Amino acid sequence: MNKFWLITFGIIAGIVALSHIGPMIGLAVSGLIIYIGVHFYLGSTSTFKKVWWAFVGIVGAISAISNAPALIGVAAVAALWMIYRKWNNKPTTSFAETNDPFTNFEKQWSKLSKQEEFK
Questions:
Q1: Cβ-proximal residues to 62 (8 Å cutoff; 6+ apart), any chain
Q2: With 13 labelled, which of 66, 113, 114, 116 sits at a CA distance of 20 to 30 A?
Q3: What do you get for the CA distance between the two ends of the chain, in Å?
Q4: C-alpha to C-alpha distance for 117 and 112, rounded to whole angstroms
Q5: Per-residue model confidence (pLDDT) at position 23
Q6: Among the residues of 20-102, which ranges form H helices?
Q7: 58 CB contacts (<8 Å, ≥6 apart)?
Q8: For residue range 16-37, what is the model confidence (pLDDT) as tens digits?
Q9: Phi, psi dihedrals of residue 105, rounded to the nearest 5°
């Protein structure tokens, strides 16, 4: 993909990510509320506290559902990350050294044969 299309898609993804920054912050706060509700629900012993923390978790879940457009913003941020990686020509996987599937086998075999010589 040439640089023109990377710039074009990067600008579009940046605009989308910036326009969804509010719902992404709201989703993060909602996730924190859900986490707090579940954490204290599991640690409470009385029935009243369990009902209260379940209510807090449900309110957080409803708030998270209302911030569903944040998923579009998260996808735009992921697209920006992939465009950045493509721009710098960094591989998407860090374990791909060569295309030869027998290279790793040969390295391991040489290590094993060297260990057997010393026994």
A1: none
A2: 66
A3: 53
A4: 9
A5: 93
A6: 21-43, 47-66, 70-87
A7: 37
A8: 999 999 999 999 999 999 999 9
A9: -60, -45
